[in-house]
Automatic annotation (TrEMBL):
Record's protein name: Cytochrome bc1 complex cytochrome c subunit
Catalytic activity: a quinol + 2 Fe(III)-[cytochrome c](out) = a quinone + 2 Fe(II)-[cytochrome c](out) + 2 H(+)(out)
Gene3D superfamilies: Cytochrome c-like domain
Chain positions recorded as heme c 2 binding sites: 155, 158-159
UniProt membrane topology term: Multi-pass membrane protein
Residue ranges crossing the lipid bilayer per the database entry: 242-261
Domain Cytochrome c, residue spans: 47-126, 142-220
SUBUNIT field: The cytochrome bc1 complex is composed of a cytochrome b (QcrB), the Rieske iron-sulfur protein (QcrA) and a diheme cytochrome c (QcrC) subunit.
Keyword field: Cell membrane, Electron transport, Heme, Iron, Membrane, Metal-binding, Repeat, Respiratory chain, Signal, Translocase, Transmembrane, Transmembrane helix, Transport
Binding positions for heme c 1 per the UniProt entry: 60, 63-64
């Protein structure tokens, strides 16, 4: 009995028990602990790509090909990036109802979660511009005056000086930018949808894009008042010139006729 009691009180016994307890704890943690963040993000991205591929097969493959390689009815989507998908699908332009000179904005049929999944799948086909964050297109730190200058230099030729839009050739048009989400304006500058040229960061920096968006929000806000009074729709020199020709010239003709009539009467008398 004394020998057995001595073995139980051996100094190494406590150390062995501690090691066994640590080994059990570590094993249980390895089994039940959540995956690390990187692995969790990778899994979520993989699931998003799989779901996006299913959505693409139903709503997009008939025009863009089963692998996004393009066809006679739609361009290749390899390398367009997530921003292009978020813009085209998020503004309702895609899926297109029918082919034409230009696909207009219409009601959005996908949820934002589904759009994100489609964007994840298209991004997996080839690298391209990513969806911007609010810090990139938000109003904080924006220079409205600089944005107006940049917009007049780069955009007014098509979109008019306040973003009201305008006609192009062969049935195409520059759409109105009034009421368009800042994120989608940023994405349009990034990707150059349809007839619009792209403005990468080497042409217009992130700050430049932020400034332009701030300018458009300023001139198209709900409480904006035209400093020049009646703006004739804000469509620029064409509508204002037409107004001048019809009403201005008409008024001059009316005055000339009145003067001639009075002169004729004066001569008779």
């Amino acid at each position: 009995m004394k020998k057995l009691s001595a073995r139980r009180r051996h100094p190494l016994a406590a150390l062995v028990v501690l090691l066994l307890a640590l080994a059990c704890t570590g094993g249980l943690y390895a089994v039940f602990a959540p995956a690390d963040k990187a692995k969790a993000d990778e899994t979520a991205q993989s699931l998003a790509i799989d779901e996006g591929k299913k959505l693409f097969a139903v709503g997009c493959a008939s025009c863009h090909g089963t692998g996004g390689q393009g066809s006679s009815d739609g361009p290749s989507l390899v390398g367009v990036g997530a921003a292009a998908v978020d813009f085209q699908v998020g503004t309702g332009r895609m899926p297109a109802q029918q082919p034409g000179a230009q696909v207009p904005r219409k009601k959005v049929i996908y949820t934002q979660a589904e759009i994100d999944q489609l964007a994840a799948y298209i991004s997996s086909l080839g690298a391209g511009p990513s969806v911007p964050t609010e810090a990139q297109y938000g109003p904080d730190g924006a220079d409205i005056a600089k944005g107006g200058e940049l917009f007049r230099d780069n955009c007014t030729q098509c979109h008019n000086f306040t973003g009201k839009g305008g006609a192009l050739t062969h049935g195409k048009f520059a759409p109105s930018l009034e009421g368009v989400a800042p994120k989608h304006i940023y994405e349009a500058m990034q990707t150059g949808p349809q007839n619009m040229p792209s403005f990468p960061d080497t042409t217009l920096s992130e700050q430049n894009k932020k400034d332009i968006i701030a300018y458009l929000n300023a001139v198209n806000g709900d409480d904006t008042v035209s400093p020049g009074g009646l703006e004739l729709g804000g469509l620029g020199p064409v509508s204002e010139g037409l107004f001048a020709w019809i009403f201005g010239l008409g008024a001059l003709i009316a005055v000339a006729v009145w003067v001639a009539a009075r002169t004729a009467k004066a001569k008779k008398s």
